[in-house]
Design goal:
The protein is 38% helix and 24% strand. It is an alpha/beta fold. It has three domains: 41 residues; 73 residues, Ubiquitin-like (UB roll) (Roll), CATH 3.10.20; 149 residues, 3-Layer(aba) Sandwich (Rossmann fold). The strands form two sheets. A ten-stranded mixed beta sheet has the order 6-5-4-7-8-9-10-11-12-13, covered by helices on one side. Strands 1-3-2 form a three-stranded mixed beta sheet. Strand 5 and strand 6 form a beta hairpin.
């Protein structure tokens, strides 16, 4: 500071024009020094801010909450998305890409909908909706599927007795794989039939064992004891009230129902049926 004062005093002995020029140069010099100081402080501050936000443990993910799914699915999902063992992964909450995490979880066949949120400073919250199993599908083994045709998982043989869903047969085995989607229109028609039967004919539905889809797009329901109801491919749902009235008239009990070999609904304005060991008959 003393050196600057000496320079200012020495300028007074110079001619006017040189003194003005020297003062301008001095002002520029001072501005450059100030700019360098401010820039250095900004760089240091930026470095410290970057370290605090992206490196320091304050924003390190220490907790992942996943709501809406069972503990088993949660464990599988966190491992699938590499969100398990947080103490070893050192994820920074600012750096985490929630869109990528969401896409990864959506690739899990067991999860239907998922949303991912950040809760600062160190929590990741995941809201998920699992797929709801509704049918078994026979392929190269038994597989569990939902109403959208997504194959959720394979069914272990030892768990077959625990699973009460009917089995759908007739779908090409090569199309039945975990994560795959059944797109056949007759599949969705059969699912609608299953749902309607569960609501309108609860007692009958409890005896449903199999839904068979043939190459002509026809649906046949097969019940415990071997009785078949052949719905065909047209007006499947529309024939349910007629079927219910027919069964109420001819089968007052489950034992009576099992006397039928088949009930055929493929004909307009009549129901063709056959009792075991007897010739087919028609009911209008």
């Amino acid at each position: 500071m003393l050196d600057v004062k000496k320079r200012v005093l020495s300028l007074k002995s110079l001619p006017e024009r040189f003194r003005v020029r020297a003062l301008r140069i001095l002002r520029v010099f001072v501005k450059i020094i100030l700019l360098l100081i401010v820039s250095t402080l900004a760089i240091l501050l930026g470095y410290r801010l970057h370290y605090f936000l992206f490196v320091s443990p304050y924003f390190r993910v220490t907790r992942v909450e996943m709501l809406g799914v069972s503990p088993e699915v949660k464990t599988e999902a966190l491992k699938f998305a590499e969100l398990d063992k947080l103490e070893k992964r050192s994820y920074n909450l600012f750096r985490l890409n929630t869109s990528r995490i969401r896409r990864n979880l959506m690739n899990m066949p067991k999860i239907r909908i998922v949303e991912v949120y950040k809760e600062y400073p160190n929590t990741l919250r995941i809201l998920a909706q699992p797929r709801k199993p509704i049918i078994l599908i026979l392929g190269y083994g038994l597989y569990i599927a939902d109403s959208e045709g997504v194959i959720i998982e394979s069914l272990a043989p030892e768990k077959r007795k625990e699973c009460k869903f009917p089995v759908m047969t007739g779908i090409p085995s090569e199309e039945v794989r975990v994560g795959g989607v059944i797109k056949s229109p007759v599949f969705f028609k059969a699912i609608d039939l299953q749902s309607a039967m569960a609501k309108q004919c609860e007692g009958l539905y409890e005896q449903l064992s199999e839904l068979n889809l043939n190459d002509r797009g026809e649906i046949t329901a097969i019940f415990k004891g071997g009785t078949e109801i052949r719905f065909g491919r047209h007006e499947v749902l529309e024939r349910l009230p007629e079927l219910e009235a027919f069964l109420n008239q001819h089968t007052p009990s489950l034992k009576e129902f099992r006397k039928f070999q088949y009930v055929d609904l493929r004909f307009q304005k009549q129901i063709v049926y056959a009792l075991r060991g007897e010739k087919p008959a028609a009911a209008k």
